[in-house]
Specification:
The chain has 17 helices and seven strands. The chain is α+β, with helices and mostly antiparallel strands. Among the domains are: 38 residues; 41 residues; 38 residues, no CATH class; 29 residues; 128 residues, Alpha-Beta Plaits (2-Layer Sandwich), CATH 3.30.70. The strands form two sheets. Strands 6-3-5-4-7 form a five-stranded mixed β-sheet, sandwiched between helices. It has a two-stranded antiparallel ribbon with strand order 1-2. The two termini are 111 Å apart.
């Protein structure tokens, strides 16, 4: 009843307000009629909807009854049939910050999902990595307590171990153990059969021993046997071997040439001309040769010819000029006769570069760490060919061996090329080289040989009978590596 009374009073207040509306705000008749028609139409539609809802609810009679029985309003609280209070979900306002945070989380979940790519598409490239649209946040990462203490402890232990290893290596280097071990590793192994076979008599004793073994040396001789009976060719005489001349020594003693000064050379040239002139004068005096024509020039024309030049000066001048041209032509012909042809000049150059190696061949062995630069390889090959030197270049890792054979002058020029002209790696300026002489040449025209293994490089030198060249270069490389490790 109280609620109905309140509604009636509110309706009365609204009616009073409507009556107090000024006349200028009232609608005219046609407009009011339109509004009334719209209101009636809306009321009709609302009634129809209400009827439909009531008809649908009528088909389910127990739906509202159960709700009314279970949920009741008691003193402003909602309770169920048993009298317990029911907590309904209440909508509360949410802060914008929380809403944005929630949206970010949802967006992150969407971005983390792997994008579905069509790998069969012609525009698909698996080399391109997909980048997220939003950069990932990098939060603070705090280290666990004691982490850096453990790292420092490991560093100290490592430094102590390295120090101990350095001391051991230094001691091994002083005693030569380390170098000997390294050289033993690279020494080629011999066949086991050769090592196990021990001869009964060594080859240097087989020519003087009567017995076939050392054990039978005393068995076949009685107590009175002498050394002469045990050994063949052993006497009390001393044999002095004949001294032989080394093949590289020259047969004739070398005489140092005498170099004259410029003034002395001029003096000798004048004396030679004077002797030739005297010899020619003697032949003319004895009538063996006709006297030469006077050497007339334009400058001494009047002094030599005298009256003849005065009588017909044009004729005399022509005669003098013809004589001068004749002398010039004879001079040029003499120079042309002395001039060497193209083939002669080439032979002279080759003869100057080619040196006599019959008395011995000078050999140089160089070890280069890095020879991959094609420009340096070309310089080595071109200079060796220009100097008419033979040899070979074997390339294996950091042991590149250059062997060249030739005369002493060519070796001097090639050594300057290898040690000064070619700029090798500045960090590794040291290059090993060995120089010596051999009886004959072992290689042909210089060639480059790339060897992937150490055994192949050794076999290539063994084929030419100079395996010791490789042993020398490789052992130097191993010793150098050992010294670098100990430093």
């Amino acid at each position: 009843m109280e609620n109905a009374t309140k509604q009636i009073e509110e309706r009365k207040k609204q009616m009073k307000i409507m009556c107090s509306v000024p006349s200028n705000l009232l609608l005219n008749a046609p407009t009011a009629t339109n509004y009334m028609n719209d209101a009636i139409e809306k009321a009709k539609r609302a009634a129809e909807l209400q009827a439909k809802i009531q008809a649908q609810l009528a088909n389910k009679p127990g739906l509202l009854g159960t709700i009314v029985d279970k949920v009741q309003l008691v003193e402003g609280r909602i309770v169920d049939a048993s009298g317990r209070e029911v907590q309904l979900v209440q909508r509360t306002p949410t802060l914008k910050a929380n809403i944005r945070a929630k949206r970010r989380e949802e967006f992150k979940l969407v971005q983390d999902r792997a994008a579905e790519l069509d790998e069969s598409s012609p525009f698909f490239d698996d080399r391109v990595a997909l980048k997220p649209a939003v950069r990932q946040r990098r939060p603070f990462k705090f280290h666990d307590p004691g982490k850096f203490e453990a790292i420092a402890q490991r560093v100290r232990a490592k430094s102590q171990l390295e120090k101990l290893q350095a001391e051991i290596a230094q001691a091994a280097k002083k005693t030569g153990i380390q170098s000997a071990a390294k050289l033993a590793l690279i020494t080629p192994k011999k066949d086991d059969t050769e090592e196990l076979e021990v001869p009964d008599v060594e080859w240097w004793d087989s020519c003087i021993l009567r017995a076939e073994s050392y054990d039978d040396m005393d068995a076949g001789v009685d107590e009175k046997g002498s050394k002469q009976e045990q050994f063949v060719g052993v006497t009390h005489l001393v044999e002095h071997p004949i001294e032989m001349r080394p093949p590289s020594d020259p047969t004739k003693a070398r005489v140092l040439p005498v170099y004259l000064t410029k003034k002395e050379r001029k003096k000798i040239r004048r004396q030679n001309r004077r002797e030739v002139q005297k010899e020619m004068q003697e032949k003319v005096r004895l009538g063996l040769e006709a006297p030469p024509e006077p050497k007339v020039k334009i400058s001494n024309l009047m002094r030599v010819l005298g009256s003849e030049a005065v009588q017909d000066p044009t004729k005399v001048e022509a005669h003098v000029r013809a004589q001068m041209a004749k002398r010039q032509k004879a001079h040029e012909e003499a120079n042309a006769a002395r001039k060497l042809t193209t083939e002669q000049r080439k032979e002279k150059k080759i003869k100057r570069l080619k040196e006599d190696t019959s008395q011995g061949v000078h050999v140089s062995v160089y070890r280069v760490r890095d020879m991959r630069n094609p420009a340096k390889k070309y310089k080595v090959e071109a200079n060796a060919n220009q100097l008419y030197m033979t040899g070979m270049v074997v390339m294996y890792q950091d042991v590149n061996v250059v062997v060249v054979e030739g005369g002493p002058k060519a070796q001097k020029k090639f050594r300057r090329l290898m040690m000064h002209r070619i700029k090798w790696d500045d960090d590794q300026p040291s290059r090993d080289d060995e120089i010596g002489t051999v009886k004959s040449q072992n290689f042909g025209q210089i060639q480059f040989k790339i060897c992937p293994t150490e055994s192949l490089a050794r076999e290539h030198f063994r084929k030419h009978g100079v395996e010791h060249y490789w042993n020398l270069a490789h052992s130097q490389s191993v010793l150098e590596a050992t010294e670098d490790d100990t430093l």
